[in-house]
Amino acid sequence: VLFFCFVFALSIKAQDRSKAIALKDILQSIEKQHHIYFNYIDNEIVVFKIVPPKKSLSLSKKINYLQKKTNLFFENIDNKFINIFSNNELDAQNICGYVFSKEDNSPLENVNIKFVNGVGTSTNEKGYFELKKEKVTDLLVSCIGFTTKKISVLDLQNKNCLKIYIEVEVSELNNIIANHFLTSGISKKIDGTFEIKPKRLGILPGLIEPDVLQTMLQIPGIYSADESISSINVRGGTHDQNLFLWNGIKMYQTGHFFGLISAFNPNLAHTISITKNGSSAFFGEGVSSVVDISSNPNKFEENSFGAGINMINADIYSRFNVTKKGFLEIAGRKSITDLVKTPTYKEYYNKAFQNTSITNFSNNQNIDYSSDEKFNFYDITAKYSQKIGQKDHLILDFITINDQLKVFQTARINTIIQSENNILFQKNHGGNLSWKRNWNAKNSSNFNVYTSSYELNAQKNKIQDNQTVRQENKVLDNGFKLENSHIITSKFTFNNGYQLNEIGTINLDEINSPIFYRRIKEVLRTHALIVEGKYNDTLSKIYFNTGLRLNYIEKFKKYLFEPRLQFNYAITKHFNLEVLGEFKSQNSYQVIDLQKDYFGIEKRRWILANNTTIPIQKSKQASISLFYTKNNWLFTLENFYKKVTGINSSSQGFQN
Q: Which among 120, 137, 407, 492 could disulfide-bond with 488, CB atoms 3.0 to 4.6 Å apart, if both were Cys?
């Protein structure tokens, strides 16, 4: 009996030993059974060989069993991921975590995780990472295609692994027909617009820096008859028929040096969207084109600073993060003509003031002529962006543009002194407060309150005649706009909104000898209701966007219906058909009273329609285009019809 008991006991011992298997194989079996993932370091678990737990046990009981048998620490995260640590690893206080996509909660691989001092790692296929704690303040999480996220060191004090969600960076590359239109940095989009990123521009003729508006002139159908960016013509339309927007602010002055230099700082990360036809129903006021300029993608970036100088101006740029989710951006330019008058400045001066009363005075004098001119300009832009929680985003933009010209000219003819003192100011100030809220994954709203103030002031003093001539043109544009976006399906989006706009203009002419005084003030208030539907099917390669803008002008008690259309169909991989159409109207535009107004430099003045002698300008436009792109070749065939009514002859510069 003793012999048999001894043999039986040995057999049981042998069976238990035969059932012991490697811990790694046990973990892989549990992963398949319970659809979970274990994270561990191979060197720490390779030493363990134990009897596997029964398959009938629950996941939590299996984990408890393994923890007792190995003395390892098991951390369960949402019954999806389980981290395995040794006691030594816990004492080292490593930082661990998972990185997920906020859009679909899927784990992200190859995400860069690093401290500000440069020490870092990347996530594995399960989105998992580990880092040894450092005496630094912030942890940066970055991945291509996703927005960079900063995590404060205060969030890293807990022993549990972090769960980090990063947002997809919105990109419209899939909606681009031609990615390099003429050169890099210019793209033709599927909705018919041209998108220009001056910071990415390749080589363009005649440009030494990424001038925002000079780049526009490279696009077919856009030109300037006098080579000035204050006279940009789109398909025959005058400059004032273009709607220029800078971060939602309507700009009435677009250039320095009276049209030779763009008024928008090239150091900012501008994105220019140009629509010649088929503009969105959310854009009004501008029968020719829409030039929408935005200055920053509003995403997290590291602090930056830059400064420079050329033969015309000096510039400075600074961007720094104020909070974890907020930054302040300031940029400015100032002419250096107060310090030195370079040869470049002299050439610009001669070109800007040719055929004006400034140069005509010198042309008429050939005896003892002298002139003292002072010209300078500056522009300042500021942006403050602050994300509030996960749903709200607040943005405040400000811009100011200023040009000043002072010219004192004198000549002695037969002991008679003739002299003139000319002063000219031109400035544009603007501000925009934008609040965006994401109500949920499919609904969002954007609310904008904006203002724009423009002033053109000229004064001529004929000293010997004791005569003073003063002229003023002022514009005050205030309003707000509400935009709502509703994602109905993955292919269909419905947008609606409301816009209130009030524009006031003042035109003043005053002479002291003989006495003459004229001051005209006009105010127009416009309401607009907007609906828009967008259908984008990438499989059938159809893009369709149609909208309607209903304008109501209070003063005239007049309704204007403005339908818009954008259609694009990819016939083949390389061949696209595009159809665009729009009805638009405009209540404010520029006219020329006399060619010598404002010394003939800025002779155009802004006025408002009165619905009689100065009618509302209306336009109808339709176009059909064919695009063929292959092997870096682009062929386009475009036919358009455009009709504008209500044009005043003085807006074209006619004098008879």
A: 492
pTM of the model: 0.72
Please state, as a whole number, how many other Cβ atoms lie within 10 Å of the Cβ of residue 138.
17
Residue among 265, 263, 288 at smallest CA distance from 275: 288
Contact 326, 387 (CB under 8 A): yes
CA distance 185 to 203: 10
Place of tokens 């602050």: 386
Q: What phi and psi values does residue 5 have, to the nearest 5 degrees?
A: -60, -40
**Three-state DSSP class for residue 234:** strand
Handedness of CA 97, 124, 36, 100 (dihedral sign): positive
Cβ(134)–Cβ(115) under 8 Å? yes
Q: 424: part of which helix (H) or strand (E)?
A: strand 416-440
Q: What would the pLDDT profile of 173-230 be if each residue is shown by its tens digit?
A: 446 666 667 667 788 888 888 888 776 766 566 666 677 788 788 888 898 877 788 8
Cis ω before 615 (30° cut-off from 0): no
At position 532, the amino acid (one-letter code) is E
**Per-residue pLDDT reduced to its tens digit, 400-420:** 999 998 888 787 766 677 777
SS3 content of the chain, % helix, strand, coil (to 5): 15, 55, 30
User: Which stretches of 218-294 are DSSP H helices?
Assistant: none
